[in-house]
Amino acid sequence: MIEMEAMIPETAKADERELARQEEAVGKVAWFGGMAVTAVTVACFLTLVATADGAWWEYILYTLVGGVPLAYALFCTLVMRQMDLSVFNRYREHLVDRLTDLQELVFRDELTGLFNRRHFYDTARAEIDKARVSRQSLAVMLLDLDGLKKINDEYGHNVGDVVLANLGKMIASHTRSCDVPCRLGGDEFGIVMQGTDKRGAFALARRLWAGLEAAPMYEDGGTSLMVTVSIGLAGYPWGGESVEEMIQWADADMYANKVSRKLARDMEPIGAEHSGDIEAVPEDVFGSL
After folding, report:
1. Is the bond preceding 282 in cis, omega lying within 30 degrees of 0?
2. Looking at residues 151-157, what average pLDDT do you find?
3. What secondary structure letter does DSSP report for 280?
4. Most buried among 72, 79, 80, 83, by the most CB within 10 A?
5. How far apart are CA 144 and CA 187, in angstroms?
6. pTM of full prediction above 0.85
7. What is the DSSP letter of 92?
8. Are 137 and 195 in contact (CB under 8 A)?
């Protein structure tokens, strides 16, 4: 995933730099103040010693007169410095928390809880740069929910939203912590999978399809909606040298997947029941292994 520093807004960075400058200015004032007090105290002490009559108790008295304010000044300078650093650190932690919350708002899809289209492309570009350097595999999956318009027309947009939200949960439950599942918009989803080759991406596609075959995405009373998705796969280096090439490859693969399944349904004999067995789907639906 993209490092947080790269995603901090420029205005927030400017505020943090201004805070750092103010903290540095306060530190300088405290340091120069302490040095000034020290210099004055030492000068007074030396003057008193030079004009003393030489009695031993006078030296002790002058030491106390000069030493106590000096020690107090040094102590106050240290305390002020620690308080200043404590306030600065608390403010910095608060700023980081606010930036984290802002980051979630900017890069999360509100309906599904997945990352959004912007984060998908930012992550894909960052990961392909890493893959070029490390020569590791990278895979991208595109998913398109079949028949969302029909669901919205027949059951209403609220039901369609529930289907999309549950599909997002299904996708998230089948991905690893290092994967980046996203909603690209409407009924389109995408997953960036670092360190994943073609076979690993194909395995995830199978698991997602099996999960959708097993669980409805909407249930209410006597209504239970099962849905299907069209899936396209691409990756580096086997499916493009850039993010744009990989997306084109995956989009073409997804379209071929959709057409192949539609043709398979249209060619079934009238009255024949679809088996629902994902093993019956040709492997090249997701691209050859």
Report:
1. no
2. 94
3. G
4. 80
5. 6
6. no
7. H
8. yes
